[in-house]
Design brief:
BUG, signal, alpha/beta, Bug_dom1, Tripartite tricarboxylate transporter substrate binding protein
Length: about 350
């Protein structure tokens, strides 16, 4: 009897030790950054708003609608998405709206270099550090395009005209003066020897830039490869140059010449990703990061990349945050170098 009692006590003690160890052990789930994070049961409880801080048709709008489409169609996120355009101020109108919902876990927005350019131009008090980086998704490149009947056959034709008279060519973009469409073009023609101080830049933040180009109201449009693909396929435009370091490989975009192959030693990358409000909960941010990671691995997303001439450029939240800080320093130096910002 005594032996049976001792055996019972031993089994009971061992069981209690196992239970205690199990209570102290944290449930972990794979992290999209390659490490591990505590698992969370957080899920969106209502439709998710994606703010495109620009008019319809531009890079932010296209990114927002493509992300929403793939996440919904692939049932990666159960809730519906509503894409809302809030154009103006080079993005600052949209950012102000997002800032007013600083703790909203059901709000996302696409981001790209203007979130650096606009505050560096003192056009907004809000910048990348005011929001929550979720993930980087794509890399795109600038594209300088003209209408199909333009007298400019290549980038050097345009450069020659601008060297003779910088005011003879009007350039349109959807970003504000001093922001991305403006700056990438100024950088490229400046490298080629154009006096950039007299370049005529028209800001069409209402998303009307392509209409202005095709209607003959402006001579050239500074945009991105993704924006150029559909109009090129339709035969409406000519692509003078793109800012990639070498020709892209997909079917349509492989026809677009680079600046470098035309003797202009310049390149510029347009990265894009998704962010949330500055005080989004860590659980929500992790949920969206994992959802976007899953999306980026689907065939449907890869088809969208090919459709728009985007390159895959995945970075998880922590890597993306570090990248953004580094990009800010790089862009600030660029603006100082071409005289659009004073050295501190």
């Amino acid at each position: 009897m005594k032996k049976k009692w001792l055996l019972f006590l031993s089994v009971l003690s061992f069981t209690l030790i196992l239970v205690a160890c199990g209570d102290n052990e944290k449930t972990e789930a794979p992290s999209t950054d390659g490490g591990s994070e505590e698992a969370t049961d957080w899920k969106p409880s209502k439709p998710i708003e994606i703010i495109a801080p620009a008019g319809a048709g531009g890079g932010w709008d296209t990114t927002a609608r493509t992300v929403a489409k793939v996440l919904e169609e692939q049932k990666i996120v159960e809730q519906r998405f509503a894409v809302v355009n809030k154009p103006g101020g080079g993005g600052s109108i949209g950012w102000s709206y997002i800032k007013s919902k600083d703790t909203d876990d059901h709000l996302l927005f696409p981001t790209s270099p203007p979130i650096m350019f606009v505050p560096l131009n003192n056009q907004s008090d809000l910048g990348h550090k005011d929001f929550t980086p979720i993930a980087a998704l794509t890399a795109d490149y600038g594209a300088y395009i003209v209408s199909a009947d333009s007298p400019y056959e290549n980038m050097n034709d345009l450069i020659e005209a601008m060297k003779n008279d910088p005011t003879s060519v009007s350039v349109v973009g959807v970003s504000s003066p001093g922001s991305m469409d403006h700056m990438q073009f100024i950088k490229s023609v400046g490298v080629a020897g154009v006096d950039v101080k007299d370049v005529k830049y028209v800001s069409a933040q209402d998303g009307n830039a392509m209409t202005m180009l095709l209607g003959g109201q402006v001579d050239v449009m500074s945009t991105d490869v993704g924006e150029a693909v559909e109009q090129y396929r339709a035969g409406n435009i000519r692509v003078l140059a793109i800012t990639a370091p070498e020709r892209l490989q997909d079917e349509i975009v492989s026809e677009f010449p680079t600046l470098i192959e035309q003797g202009i030693d310049d390149s510029f990358i347009i990265w894009r990703g998704m962010m949330g409000p500055g005080n989004m909960s860590p659980e929500a941010a992790k949920f969206y990061e994992a959802a976007l990671k899953e999306m980026s691995e689907t065939d449907e997303w890869k088809q969208e990349l090919e459709r728009y001439g985007w390159e895959p450029n995945w970075m998880g939240s922590e890597e993306f945050k570090k990248f953004l800080d580094e990009q800010y320093d790089t862009i600030e130096k660029l603006m100082i170098d071409i005289g659009l910002r004073e050295q501190n």
